Amino acid sequence: MEIILALVIGGAFGAVLDRIGASNPNVIGRMLNLTNLKLMKAILLAIGVGSVLMFGGQMLGMVDVGHMSVKTAYLGVFAGGLLLGVGWALAGYCPGTGVVAAGAGRRDAFAFIAGGLLGAAAYMATYPAIKATGLLDAILGGNATLGTVPGTDYPGLTGLPGDTLGIVLGLVFVAVAFVLPERIIRKDTRLPAE
C-alpha cells in the first residue's frame, strides 16, 4: 500500500510541476534570468505553506517528529549546491523537473537524466578522493537545526523553538511569494516563446 500511495502522490506532484511550467526549460530560464517569476512565486508559496503545515502539525501533535531527518552539514553540500545551480541554469532542469519532463515526453530530459546518472557514478567512483579532501567533514554542529525541535536529539543553533521558527519562516516565504513582482527584468530577448 505504501508503494501505491507513493506512486499516487508522486504522480500528482509531477502533474502539478508540469502544470506550473517547472518541466519546461524555457520557463525555468525565464525565472533564472528574472523576466518571469511566476514559477519562483509558486515555489516560494509551496515551501511556505508546507513549512507552516508541517511545523504547525508538529505543534498540534498531528505530525510525528520521529519522521524528521536532518542531514549533516558539510562544505560539500555548498559545493554540490553550486554545481546543481549551474546545471539547473544550463540545462533548464533540476533532478525532479527533469524526471517530470521525461514523463511528459521531452526528449532533451532523457539526456539530462543520463548526464545526472553519469555524474552520480563519477561521484561514487571518486568518493574516497573527495572524502580525503575534508569536504565531507561535519560543520556547524553536524546534524543541527536552526531552532530546537522538541522530541528530537538535533541541537538547535539559536536556542529558539524550532516549531515556532519554522512557522514564522514559512509565513515569510508565503509573504514574499505574494509581494514578489512577476518580473524584475522587463524584456527577455534570449529565450524563445513557450
UniProtKB/TrEMBL annotation:
The chain crosses the membrane at residues 42-60, 110-127, 164-181. InterPro entries: Sulf_transp_TsuA/YedE (IPR007272). Keywords: Membrane, Transmembrane, Transmembrane helix. This is Uncharacterized protein. It comes from Roseibium marinum.
